[in-house]
Structures are given as structure tokens and as C-alpha cells.
Amino acid sequence: MPERSPLSALPACFDPLRARPLRALAALRLSCATSVTTSPGRQRSAVRRCADQLRFTLIAEASDVGVSARKTSPFERPALSPWLQRPHAYEADVWSHVDRAVRSVQHMTELIAWARRHGRILVFGMPEDGFPLVMTPLSGDSVVQRCVDLARDAQQEAETISARLTSAHAALRETGRYGGGLVPFGYRKAPHPSGSGWCLAPDPDTAPLVRSIVSDVESGRSLLAIARDLNEQGVPVPRDRHAQLQGRSMGGRRHGRDFDRFRWTSGTLSKVLRSPTLMGHRTHGGQTVRDELGAPVLIGRPLLSDAEFDALQVTLRARSNGTHRPRRRTTALLIGVAHCQGCGGRMYFAARKGYAYGDYLCRATARGEVCPAPAGMRSDWLERYTLDRYHQATGKDGRAVREGLLRDGVRVTAAKGRRGGGPERNHGPDTARLTFTIGEPSDSRWDH
Ligand SMILES: [Zn+2]
């Protein structure tokens, strides 16, 4: 419960018991980069709570979706600015939180000057305090200072996010060029650091959203539920975002129907989450494009590290069996399928503590034998390689199980890797070390 009533913050001239309650405007704002906690629905109910506490009557709502507070002052926002130009249509502006109003000290100062000039009230929800911060024309310096301090916090928060996105600029120098086509979700077009051509850079509006979607997936939220949230929040799908970045209108014609904008589905989302562009890779047909040395060609700074991307794929694969319960695999997928080329024996699976993946390793030592060239490979790489080849060879879709692979006579051999190697070592399996065969009778001599 609040210790003191927010009404005490109102001067007598705003007597809440007077005949006509004060009229208030609900001001909502949402950039694309957002989490569920700032959805319009949540903002709306927080604003309503503030208005109730102050006994204000909400007369209208100004909702700016897809508007960044860093770049756009309240006086430039499409929905809010017309209201700010008509200050006498109402007495108060109510935001669910300071950061919905501004992310800059400068903008806060402008807002306060506006309120003073027109004798209006500014209300900022303070979820932690239980009652809103209210700035009236008669508020003293301490209230003004508090508003400015909160704006500074919101500004610093935005700067931290932005610095994280733009750091490691040097890494871009090794970046390949972006040749056109649909800009992958989470990125936007940026001048190539060499000065000629284009590359892709994380989009400050959608890149944080990608991270929040990934963490939602990792925490077990279904793609369907996430897609629903994104639609509710008005987040544009990749195709619409691309149009938006190009200054074209969203939506269009699909299956003979016209759409104002397209909607997220679990399919759209799945495509975004499974694309190696999240690691900054150039892709073709959904697959990483590699240079002559086998290293991925980069189009921009990665949104996810290789390890994060791999972990995500494991989560998604485990999910696609239709249940959302984490699957406990008693036998690793490639047991009996993966073989060491050095000794021809089966590889076994060894978990890595703290990682979503483990390793397939030659088990000659466990058999008490000596392998001339014991092979080992990260389990997620070997599994991805095997499943890709398997799906290619069979045209089957969906999740493959170990029994299915064995039944179809799938056999993968891995040769021992060389020591050392460049950074490309961390980008994926060296497929030159791998062979894939299917449908050949298993050679039982080798299957110890
Ligand atoms: Zn071996």
C-alpha cells in the first residue's frame, strides 16, 4: 500500500473533490524493441491505475507504436504531438512509466517547460513505489529534480543498450557486403566500413527484440504464444519491417487477399530463429554461405554468438516433437550412427557441463583399444550435419529419431581433426572430416 496518497501531491486548485474530475490523456509509446512488460495492454492498465488513484477521468489515448523515445521527442510523436498542441483539451498527461515518455534529459526539460507554460499536470507511473510521480504547475524543485533524474536513468539505460549494439565496430571491417534482398530480421542496412557498398548492422529497434524472443524460447514459451505477443504489440514481421525501413507501406497482397500488415505465426518466428543470419552469416536457401576455406561469409555483426545460436537450435529441435516438455534423451541421437574413422568403432556421447551440447568421441579407449586417430566432434554440429544430410537424402521433414536413422541405415563417420586452426574452427563442423551414407547395410564387424 502507498504510504501517502498521491492526491496529496495535487495542489488545492486541483481539488479532486470538485464537481468535475480532471480530464487526463493516456499517453502510450512502444518502440519495436520491447518486451512483454511494455505491451500496450500493460501500459494501458498502468495508466488507468494512476488515473484512478488521482481520480482523473481518462478522456483519450495517444498511442505511438514503433516510435523510439531516443530519436523522437514527445513533440514529434505522431499520436502525442497533436495533443500537446491542444493543451486546453485536458488537464493532465499520464504515462505508465517515465521511459514511455522520454529517454532524454533534454526531452524531459522540454516536457516540464510545456506543462508549466500551460498549467498542465504530468503523471508518471512508478510501479515500484505504488503511487505515481505527479508534477503540477506548483510542484517545487524537488519534484522537478526527481523527474529529471528519472529521465537521466532512462537515457543511460538507452545508451547502454545502444553502446552494446554498436561496439566492436572493428569487427565489421572483415564483414562481407550485403547485396540486397530482404534484410534479415534484427538487422538494418548500413554503409560498409570500407566506404563502398553496404553491409548489415544490428537494428537498434529489432535486435534487442530478437534477444528477448530467444530468452522467451529458452524459458519454455511456445512459438505460438510468442507470435501472439508480437502481434498484440504491433511488432512488424520481417517483411513489413523491411518495407518500413525502406519507407514503403506495410502489408500487401497474399493468397488473393489484401493485408494492412502481415501477422506473426509460429512459422515466421521459427524461420527467423533457425536462420544462421542470427550469427551474422550470409545465407543462401537458409544455409550458411562459406568462403573457399570453409569459413562462414559474414554480412554483419552477429546478434547471437555461435554458442547461443547452437543452444537455441537444440531447444527448438527438442521442441518440434510437438510437446513443450523438455525432452530427456536417454540415448544420444547418433549412438550407433556416428563412427570414428580411425578405428571404425562407434562414437559415444559425452556431456559438457554447463553446455546445451556435448561431444561425440571415439570410444576405443573405453574398449581397451588404441585408436590410431581418435575422432571427436561437438554433438550439435554432428547432429545438425547428419540431420541436414538425412533430410536432404530422404526428403523427410520434422524431427528424426535415432531409431529412424538406424532403420534407414544412416551412417556417419568422423575423422580426427587437426590441432590448432584459425577462428573458422569455431564456426561449425569441418565437413571435409565427415562422410554420410544412407541405406547401406550396416557393417557389423565394426559395430562394437
Ligand atoms: Zn577411433
From TrEMBL:
User: Which region ranges are annotated with the description Disordered?
Assistant: 412-448
This protein's source sits in the domain of life called Bacteria
Source organism of this protein record: Streptomyces naganishii JCM 4654
The protein's UniProt keywords, in alphabetical order, are:
DNA recombination, DNA-binding
One of the record's GO molecular function terms: DNA strand exchange activity
Recombinase domain: from which residue to which, for each copy? 184-322
Q: Which SMART domains match?
A: Resolvase
UniProt keyword DNA-binding present = yes
Q: What is this protein called?
A: Recombinase domain-containing protein
Entry-linked InterPro entries: DNA_bind_recomb_sf (IPR038109), DNA_bind_recombinase_dom (IPR011109), Resolv_N (IPR006119), Resolvase-like_N_sf (IPR036162), SSR_resolvase (IPR050639), Zn_ribbon_recom_dom (IPR025827)
Q: Where is the composition biased (Basic and acidic residues)?
A: 421-430
Q: Does the keyword Nucleotide-binding apply?
A: no
